[in-house]
Specification:
about 550 residues; alpha+beta; three-stranded antiparallel β-sheet; 13 strands; flat
């Protein structure tokens, strides 16, 4: 029951902090701290938020008459060695950061009555949760501008060994300056982890396997209680990006356990599938789904890399806009025909237009076919002279136009031949390819031909045989069938996906369906494969045993 107990602890924390962040929910000033002076340096003006560890106040730094944020640890927690150490670690982690997009710690100390406090810079603005609630939909360019700064702050934190572990919209402040809109500050390193091990951090601040953070934004490894690295923060960035472009989280649940379970086992639907009316570019959607990979090795590997890929999308978008408004967007005017004499009518040849360009003669075709003006003698009035239609037509088209027509026909015939050859090749290979929506029916225990009678769970496609994109499509179709309780079709989709890419979450899903069908041996086999693919901690193993009723 350790899993349930740990998730219960996390859910209690989540419910206290949910829907408002952990330091910025407006609360009427009801305590006697208002008006008090801390350490003879900071006069408390008003309470601006409250979290699980303490309260947050707006205060004035007396020496400089400057507004600051004062975070004060609860008196009731001063006797808890673990909480005091975590509070000190927050000050220590934030003090390591020296980046314009990270909150600055100004001071840390203890008042005369023993109250511990952290003084931080005051940022006036709105948090990203408020912006999302009031201003969605956000232009993609604005999303990239905000999250690019977040990633820049994370890159700095990760470079000094600090993992945030609780990144969410409530912890991202956005202020509006005169010259720089949407200036970002990343806040609240309250459960940050320092991973360089250069200093002794005192007592262990979390028990082995303890799950802490905000479940809606937890990486799978964080929900599992596994050891974390900086790529866990990048998963949270992926969740926030998903939320910014769709206005929705990747998963829905009414409990912390539900969110954590879905982050562990389910592939989120692409943003355009979850919110068809969302304006999100294909490149942005691909980057978001990459960041939400269950396997950290498949995500962007550093915050710098993530930011570079994000900025590349903006460059691509600007280039596309430039192409749409380029020089060929406006119609061109046809040139005025020059005047010719009957003599050079026989000698002048006009070459045809280049490929894919409209004929410059189209606007005046009827005139050119029937009438050409002779040269004008100065001082004398001139009148139009009629010439035979055959002569005018020969003059306009000439030999060059005929060559152009012949070349066009040849090119069209060549393109048709190449298209036919490609179609034959695709058709010859199609019978070996996966077709989304039409799973290959494979009995659960049937051996695969040519593989020495091995069961499906024992088989994994080679690196050259893997087709991850098709596997994800098949898995999503299987999820839809599972929701309809069409287990046979769900199994068919999942098994088709397994043959394309042996993913750990597929083994988990197939094991669960086998358990529901009372096929304990098959469930054990699939979950054993899951263990081989993910090397889960003892908590996950115990979870499987509980599901099987041991």
């Amino acid at each position: 029951m350790r899993v349930a107990r740990l998730f219960h602890e996390c859910e209690s924390l989540w419910r206290r902090q949910n829907k408002g962040g952990n330091i910025r929910v407006p609360v009427p000033p009801v305590d006697d701290t208002i008006g008090r002076t801390f350490a003879g340096k900071y006069r408390v003006e008003q309470m601006i938020g409250e979290g699980g560890m303490g309260k947050v106040y707006k205060a004035t730094q007396l020496a400089l008459d400057k507004p600051v944020v004062l975070k004060v640890l609860r008196q009731a927690l001063l006797g808890d060695e673990r909480t005091v150490a975590r509070f000190q670690r927050e000050a220590k982690a934030a003090s390591r950061l020296n980046h314009p997009n990270s909150i600055s710690v100004l001071d840390f100390g203890q008042a005369d009555d023993g109250a511990m406090y952290i003084a931080m810079e005051y940022v006036q603005g709105k948090d990203l949760h408020q912006i999302l609630s009031r201003e969605w939909p956000l232009p993609e360019a604005r999303v990239m501008r905000i999250m690019g700064q977040v990633l820049s702050a994370l890159a700095d934190a990760h470079s000094v060994g600090v993992i945030h572990r609780d990144l969410k919209p409530e912890n991202i402040m956005v202020s509006q300056g005169r010259s720089e809109p949407d200036f970002v500050k990343v806040l609240d390193f309250g459960i940050a982890k320092i991973v360089d091990g250069s200093e002794d951090e005192g007592p262990a601040l979390t028990r082995a396997g303890f799950v802490c953070g905000t479940p809606e934004y937890m990486s799978p490894e964080q929900a599992r209680g596994a050891k974390l690295d900086h790529r866990s923060d990048l998963y949270a960035v992926g969740v926030i990006l998903y939320q910014l472009v769709t206005g929705m989280l990747p998963f829905d649940s009414d409990s912390a356990v539900g969110f954590a379970t879905k982050h562990l086992t389910e592939i989120p639907p692409p943003p355009t599938k979850r919110r068809p009316d969302a304006r999100v570019s294909p490149a942005m959607e691909r980057l978001i789904m990459k960041a939400l990979s269950k396997n950290p090795d498949e995500r962007p590997q550093t915050a710098e890399q993530f930011r570079a890929e994000l900025l590349a999308i903006e460059k691509e978008r600007r280039a596309a806009v430039g192409r749409r408004s380029g020089p060929h967007s406006a119609p061109s005017l046809a040139p005025v025909p020059r005047k010719v004499t009957p003599l050079d009518q026989q000698e002048t040849k006009v070459s045809g237009p280049p490929p894919n360009m409209p004929s410059p003669w189209s606007a005046r075709e009827d005139t050119l076919k029937n009438t050409v003006e002779p040269p004008t003698d100065p001082g004398k009035a001139s009148a139009p002279t009629h010439v035979p239609k055959e002569v005018a037509r020969t003059t306009v088209e000439g030999t060059g136009a005929l060559v152009f027509k012949v070349a066009t026909v040849v090119l069209v015939l060549l393109a048709l031949l190449l298209a036919g050859a490609y179609a034959v090749q695709v058709f010859s290979q199609s019978k070996d390819h996966f077709v989304p929506g039409e799973p290959t029916e494979v009995p659960p225990n049937a051996p695969i031909p040519g593989r020495s009678g091995a069961r499906l769970w024992e088989l994994r496609p080679s690196k050259s045989e893997r087709r991850p994109t098709d596997a994800v499509k098949a898995m999503l179709d299987g999820d839809e069938a599972f929701k309809r309780q069409d287990f046979d079709r769900a199994v068919s989709f999942y098994e088709s996906a397994w043959k394309l890419d042996a993913r750990p979450d597929l083994a988990l899903k197939l094991g669960e369906i086998a358990r529901l069908r009372q096929n304990r041996d098959e469930a054990k086999a699939w979950w054993a494969e899951y263990g081989k693919l993910t090397d889960p901690p003892e908590l996950a193993t115990q979870y499987f045993e509980e599901r099987l009723g041991h």
